[in-house]
Amino acid sequence: MAKKLVIKLTAGADAPERCSQAFTVAAVAVASGVEVSLWLTGEASWFALPGRAAEFDLPHAAPLPDLLDSVLAGGRLTLCTQCAARREITEGDVLDGVRIAGAQVFVQEAMGEETQALVY
After folding, report:
1. What is the pTM assigned to this prediction?
2. Mean pLDDT for each consecutive 10-residue tract of the chain (120 residues)?
3. Nearest-CA neighbor of 94 among 103, 81, 107, 108?
4. Which residues does 96 contact at the CB level (< 8 Å), separation at least 6?
């Protein structure tokens, strides 16, 4: 089993099942003791902002705010630099604990030893 899980989420409310799956896998991995790094890209970028997860609703899925809180409490949550810039999101806009970083950092994390990377 990988000791670190890097997840890149490219979907938001535009693809709710994919979005929910990524957050669910990240939260379950955190709860299982796995080191987790969840990257928000594309439409998922909006979930780095306060209150946006509460607007998401998918029947029969865990509430997104709960999953997001789990990842923030036990993992790392990163917003893509370019995705943030395209949406005019700055470091002052994001939830506490969210960092903004680019592709170089993503590649470095994904290529680490004993790391599994998933893309949703």
Report:
1. 0.95
2. 90 97 98 97 98 97 98 98 98 98 97 96
3. 81
4. 72
